[in-house]
Amino acid sequence: MAAVEERIVTSSLSVQGIVSGAPTHEVRFDVPAAGSKQIVTSVLKAPGTPVAVGDLLATVSGIPVFLIPEGIPLYRDMRQGDVGPDVAAFQTLLVRLGYLRGAATGTMDARTLAATGLWYKSSGQRLPESDGRAYVAMEHFAFASGDGSVRQAPAVGQRLEPGKPLFVLSAGQQSVTSRFTVPEADSVKVGTAVTVRASGGASFPGTIASIGPFQSNEASKEQRAGHDVRVELSAQDAAALKESSTVSVTVSGQGKRGPAVPLSAVRQGSQGTFVTRDAERASAGTSPPTRDVPVKILAQEGGWASIDPSPELPVGTKVIVG
């Protein structure tokens, strides 16, 4: 048993975290099952380089390979006069890239071929020709779900294999994930400033980006129960951290005088965070009734947690600990 006390509790805590790699997506390039056009002859985007839709990624057996978004239904080479939804989707892409004006018509016309030629020319390439007429070759394009930065790139001279990605892109940047206990998670919020310290001693400012739902430790007793807190850093600082390395996440702040309870009195249930107060005995010889009172943790230090003032938990109120 303990009592609610009036204390100054300064919010300062340090929690271990793990550097999590950025989510990735693959660049799909349809390699012929047979034939000679399977050798990487140049790579234009090295690891760490930003990549956007429309960029020239590489050449494969001398053929340029441009990045376009998934969802464009290219299934054939497109020549002047061709009509279909694939043409319309390709025209919409050209409008997005700024090479074509107006709405998509669904017809491969001279203006669409001219716009595609400008796109190629911006990367030092030329449209292929057949019988002296330019056309759009479907083998010049690789597909991905969006922009990113190069995480994995092919090597010049590499023979491509069917089903294997041409590039792997990182969508976003690395972040840090820490498991906060319930009182620790209640003492912070999205947007709280933190300091991330690497094992070598370098420190970086960060911000809490998200606080996940409560996770028990039933699956692994080595992992403490609580909430997974994700910390974001600047792109430059995130790149300086090694993926899967262990870091510390420190939250600092200024405390103020107010009601506080022992951390051992704080509990977590379906109704959220609460303490159990010990009410007065109803009559002599009877067991004292108890009641759960929801609380919001403001800060914690030295085994104590400051809480939002509540008329149900005035200073001196007895609470159950342990």
Shape: elongated
The termini sit apart by 8 Å
Please indicate the percent range of residues in DSSP E strands (runs of 2 or more): 35-45%
* N-to-C SSE string, H for helix and E for strand: EEEEEEEEHHEEEEEEHEEEHEEEEEEEE
Fill in the keyword field for this structure:
mainly beta; 4 helices; 322 residues; 11% helix; four-stranded antiparallel beta sheet
Question: Would you mind describing this structure in some detail?
Answer:
The chain has helices spanning 85-97, 110-122, 182-186, 235-240; strands at 2-3, 5-8, 13-20, 24-27, 40-43, 50-51, 56-60, 63-69, 129-130, 133-134, 141-144, 148-152, 167-170, 175-180, 193-197, 203-215, 226-232, 246-251, 257-262, 267-269, 272-278, 290-294, 297-301, 304-307, 318-319. It is 11% helix and 38% strand. It starts with a strand and ends with a strand. The strands form seven sheets. Strands 3-14-17-16-15-18 form a six-stranded antiparallel beta barrel. The protein is built from four helices and 25 strands. The mean pLDDT is 90. It has 322 residues and is mostly beta strands.
